[in-house]
Design brief:
2 domains; 9 strands; about 50% helix
C-alpha cells in the first residue's frame, strides 16, 4: 500500500475496492479523508461497467472514527465552520448510501463512531468475529447526528437507544443480532466470505440491482396504499420490458447464463 490515506482499485470484473489506508491511526478519518472518499464515490457513481464496491481498511482496525488531531482543530471552529464540516461528512454518507451498485463493508478490528456510519451506509456488511463496535460520541459530549439516519435504518430505534445513549462497546455477535452486520466469520475467512458474496452479486442483473436499490430506499417508509401499489407495478413493468429484463428471461428459458455473467472458464 502507498501512503495515500484512501486507495481505489478496480478489477477486471468491475469490482471496486476502496481501502482506508491510515493503519497507524486505526484508519481514523479527517477532512482530507472525507474529501478523498467523496471524490472517489463521485467517480464511481459515473463509471460505466462498475458492478460492486467493497469498502475495506488496511491494518488492525476498520476505522476508529474521527481523527484526534481533526477533533482538536474542530474545538476552535466557528459555528459556520462546524456546520460546513458536518455537511461534508453528511455528503459522504449520502454518496455511499446512494451509490448505484451493491456495496459491501469488510470489517475487522475496531469500528467506532463514523466508522459505524460507513458500515450502515453499505448494503451488506461482513465482519470478523473479533470486530468491535461503538457509537461513543455521547462520551465526548456530542452525538452521532450525521450518521444517525443510516445507523437507525440499519439497527432500528430500539437498539439505537441502547448503543447511542450508553456509548458502550459491543461485539460482532451483537452487531449481527441488531442488524448492523449480515455475516460474522473467523478473521482468516473474511476475504473468502466477501468473495463468495461478490460471486452471488455478479450473477445478478446490474440494472436490476440499481433499480432494486432505489426501490428499497423509496418503499421503506411509505404506507402500503394505492399510490405505492401503482408505483411498484410501474417499476416492474418498465424493468420487464428493458433489454436486461428480456435477456434475463431468455437466458432462464434457454438454460444458459445471462449476458452479464462473466465467463471465467
Amino acid at each position: 500500500m502507498t501512503e495515500r490515506p484512501v486507495v481505489l482499485q478496480i478489477d477486471a470484473r468491475g469490482v471496486a475496492r476502496i481501502t482506508l489506508n491510515r493503519p497507524r491511526l486505526h484508519n481514523a478519518f479527517d477532512d482530507v479523508v472525507i474529501a478523498r472518499l467523496s471524490g472517489l464515490l463521485d467517480e464511481l457513481a459515473e463509471r460505466d461497467g462498475l458492478r460492486a464496491l467493497v469498502l475495506a481498511a488496511e491494518g488492525r482496525s476498520f476505522s476508529a472514527g474521527a481523527d484526534l488531531n481533526w477533533m482538536r482543530r474542530m474545538a476552535d471552529y466557528s459555528p459556520q465552520e462546524n456546520r460546513a464540516d458536518a455537511d461534508r461528512l453528511a455528503g459522504l454518507m449520502r454518496r455511499l448510501d446512494r451509490l448505484p451498485v451493491p456495496t459491501i463493508a469488510r470489517v475487522q478490528g475496531a469500528a467506532f463512531g463514523g466508522g459505524v456510519g460507513l458500515i450502515a451506509c453499505c448494503d451488506m456488511a461482513i465482519a470478523s468475529e473479533r470486530a468491535r463496535f461503538a457509537l461513543s460520541e455521547v462520551r465526548l459530549g456530542i452525538m452521532p447526528a450525521v450518521i444517525s439516519p443510516y445507523v437507525i435504518a440499519a439497527i432500528g430505534p430500539r437498539a439505537a437507544r441502547r448503543w447511542i445513549l450508553s456509548g458502550e462497546r459491543f461485539d460482532a455477535a451483537e452487531a449481527l443480532r441488531i442488524g448492523l452486520l449480515h455475516q460474522v466469520v473467523a478473521e482468516e475467512s473474511l476475504d473468502e466470505a466477501v468473495e463468495a458474496l461478490l460471486t452471488e452479486l455478479l450473477a445478478c442483473g446490474p440494472r436490476a440491482q440499481a433499480a432494486a436499490k432505489r426501490l428499497i430506499r423509496d418503499v421503506a417508509c411509505r404506507p402500503i396504499d394505492q399510490a405505492l401499489i401503482d408505483d411498484t407495478a410501474a417499476r416492474i413493468t418498465e424493468l420487464r420490458a428493458s433489454p436486461e429484463g428480456r435477456e434475463g428471461l431468455s437466458a432462464f428459458l434457454e438454460k444458459r447464463p445471462p449476458a452479464w455473467v462473466l465467463d471465467e472458464t
